[in-house]
Design brief:
CATH class: Alpha Beta
Helix content: 40-55%
Order of helices and strands: EHEHHEHEEHEEHEHHEHEHHH
Strand content: 5-15%
Mean pLDDT: 97
Structural class: alpha/beta
Number of strands: 10
Largest sheet: 8 strands, parallel
Low-confidence stretches: none
Number of domains: 1
Strand order of the largest sheet: 3-2-1-10-9-8-6-4
Number of helices: 12
Shape: globular
CATH architecture: Alpha-Beta Barrel
Length: about 350
């Protein structure tokens, strides 16, 4: 029997349409409604930043934090959902303007480390052991502003600090080469897993790969996934699409590059990703042009395309593939895959 995939998305994926060039164009959707929509759309879990679950976590006492997170967990469980992960959102706080873990300011670094521990507390209260690190502002706008060697050492120290705090958590680094910073640290999965190997417990540090982030680095997302899968370190994916090397578009999965999407699904199938129990996460935005009642199609469409591509991968004629590979006739293989995707 083929394993079934489990899907997740974050509450930020249902949004009002505001962007850096214009204000909101749709009504805000209450969190409780987003949770219900998660189940109605066929998803199994929600992704969280720490302050999605507990607003201003650094201002809460441990008891207040636990109560707030427990309330969110009850809402999730009431819909039969789980929390996939918690990510400390350091990049939106004024203290993190020039990075958090890698800031030149010791006070900011201490704040970042302590808030990360609160994120772990929130994760455990929500029922998950997975912490995701998107190192959004951990980089530079100009290289002379930081000592890169010290910055990588500080990242390592912060990860070790989290590992020591809770001996059961797992940390998945989500690499991205740029935006919001000009040049980000740990820009690819290779960098992330190299860092993982140097931590105090490499068995508990892996990676999460986002389609668009890999493309912004000029890399093939399926190959980034293959690299992590080969090491047993692919602990999450954020699937979306990207129309060229520009800003992080977060388009619906498969809508710009169907062949690329097919290969991402193919490598997940080859790697037995579904059997690991890890989630297929979506990180997609509704087009700003969508009206309120139609601003969920980016999620349902992405899931639909993923499942359709699973079927395409599973029904591709392996004999043809083997024959083409044996003859080294990759033109024939190229045509066979394309025709299969076209239903010819």
């Amino acid at each position: 029997m083929k394993s079934e995939y489990k899907f997740s998305f974050g509450p930020w994926n249902i949004h009002s349409g505001a962007d850096p060039f214009g204000p909101a164009v749709r009504k805000e959707v209450p969190f409780a409604r987003k949770v219900k929509l998660c189940r109605e759309l066929g998803f199994h879990a929600m992704q969280f930043h720490d302050d999605d679950a507990v607003p201003q976590p650094e201002n809460k006492t441990p008891a207040q934090l636990q109560r707030a997170a427990a309330k969110i967990r009850r809402i999730l469980e009431g819909e039969g959902l789980a929390a996939e992960f918690v990510a400390p959102r350091l990049w939106e706080h004024p203290l993190g303007i020039d990075g958090a873990y890698t800031s030149n300011d010791p006070k900011t670094r201490r704040w970042a480390n302590e808030r990360s521990l609160r994120a772990i507390d929130i994760a455990r209260a929500l029922g998950t052991k997975l912490i995701v690190l998107w190192l959004a502002r951990e980089g530079t706008y100009l290289r002379e502003s930081k000592n890169g060697i010290e910055s990588y050492q500080r990242l390592l120290e912060s990860i070790n600090h989290m590992l020591r705090y809770d001996p059961e958590i797992e940390i998945a680094v989500e690499p991205k080469p740029n935006e919001p910073t000009d040049h980000a640290y740990l820009p690819t999965i290779g960098h992330a897993l190299a860092m993982a190997s140097q931590t105090s417990d490499p068995s508990r540090v892996g990676g999460l790969i986002e389609t668009a982030h890999a493309m912004l680095a000029g890399l093939d997302p399926s190959d980034e996934m293959a690299f992590a899968l080969s090491m047993g370190k692919l602990w999450g994916v954020h699937l979306n699409d990207q129309n060229g090397l520009k800003f992080d578009e977060d388009k619906a999965f498969g809508m710009a590059n169907l062949r690329g999407a097919y290969n991402q699904v193919r490598i997940l199938e080859l790697g037995g990703y579904a059997a690991t129990g890890r989630y297929v996460g979506l990180d997609v935005k509704a087009l700003r042009t969508q009206k309120d009642k139609e601003a969920l199609r980016h999620l349902s469409n992405s899931r639909r395309i993923f499942l359709a591509l699973v079927e395409k991968v599973r029904t591709f004629d392996r004999k043809i593939e083997a024959q083409c590979v044996a003859r080294r006739d990759y033109e024939a293989l190229d045509l066979a895959v394309t025709e299969h995707l076209m239903g010819l």
